[in-house]
Amino acid sequence: MNIKPIRTPEDLAAALARVAQLWGAEVGSPQGDELEILALLIEKYEDEHFPMPPSDPVEAIKFRMDQLGLTARDLEPFIGSSGRVSEVLNHKRKLSLAMIKRLHEGLRIPYERLFEGA
Question: Hey, which end of the chain has fewer CB within 10 Å, N or C?
Answer without folding.
Answer: N
